[in-house]
Amino acid sequence: MQRFRYLRASGELRDHYAEVSLAPGDFIYPCFVVEGRGAREPIASMPDIYRLSIDRLLDEVGSVLRLGIDKILLFGVIPPEKKDERGTAGFTRDSLVCRAVREVKQAYPEAFVITDVCLCEYTSHGHCGLLHGDDVENDATLPLLAEMALQHALAGADCVAPSAMMDGQVEAIRRRLDGEKLTKTRIMGYSAKYASSLYGPFRDAAASAPAFGDRKGYQMDYRTMFQGIQEIAADVEEGADYVMVKPALAYLDMIARASALFRDTPIVAYQVSGEYSMLRLGAAAGLFDERRIFHEALTAIKRAGAGLIISYYAPEFVRGL
Ligand SMILES: [Zn+2]
């Protein structure tokens, strides 16, 4: 008989045998940016998460940096009247995200700034690419994503993260960046991004719900795993420096397999809005202790093999460490 219980007999022993621990450097903190000054708009479906104007964003970045969280992911949220069919507001030199990047990097050069690159936050129809009839056109969307990534990089983004799930998007962006000698700007591919019901609160936060249809034509079917591996392999081949599995908790098998197969490329797991709100609301309803449930979920994501975790809970989690 092996005496496993001996290994768990005290908190000290459990700490000695723990295989995984979480540190501030494991996290990427996602932020929603809006126009204006002094804006801090609550998001009804995401407790304690706000859309921030750039001045407020600077305060927020300062406070997470002091916690040791040095990586942020920016999403631009613009009013409906500024959106058009092509998402033009997203790829100009002075777009909301470009201005936010410039100000953040100026105030905090040590912050690692990642930008979301997709059309859905800027298109009137809310889809991630250009439409032809009701179809999202893959190849015609690529130059627009590349242009958006280029503008973010010129503004000072350390890393661009294409999330549109268009085939060839990483290659198109890498070529455009390299063509402008921006060889050091990194690319984080949203490689295995599943069409998930867990994105509901995000669409509320980013006002990016599709006006018609859904995104199943380009995001992955959750009944598949090998396609996800192929998507990751393609992004690595095209030049991605980080690859992502999204969502996280319901896709730990995918994270585990990807981290075993792609050892040279960090696997980033996105604990998405629905995961965050589910745990927050469950804790608020008294179903479980908030800190403990997040500790368990985030540890599981890292144990599965995630090198970095994108989480709305990161600052609160680190405060409790
Ligand atoms: Zn999108």
Question: How do the strands and helices of this protein lay out in sequence?
Answer:
Elements: H1 11-17, E1 27-34, E2 40-43, E3 46-53, H2 54-66, E4 71-76, H3 96-107, E5 112-117, E6 130-132, E7 135-137, H4 138-155, E8 159-162, H5 169-179, E9 186-193, H6 200-206, H7 226-238, E10 242-246, H8 252-261, E11 267-271, H9 273-284, H10 290-304, E12 308-311, H11 314-319
Parallel strand pairs: 1-3, 1-4, 1-12, 4-5, 5-8, 8-9, 9-10, 10-11, 11-12
Antiparallel strand pairs: 2-3, 6-7
This protein binds zinc ion (ZN).
Textual characterization of the structure:
This protein has 321 residues and is α/β, with parallel strands linked by helices. The protein has a domain at 22-244: Aldolase class I (TIM Barrel). Helices cover 39% and strands 20% of the residues. The strands form 2 sheets. The protein has an 8-stranded parallel barrel with strand order 1-4-5-8-9-10-11-12, surrounded by 8 helices. A two-stranded antiparallel sheet has the order 6-7. A hairpin with a 2-residue loop joins strand 2 and strand 3. The radius of gyration is 19 Å and the shape is globular. The protein binds zinc ion.
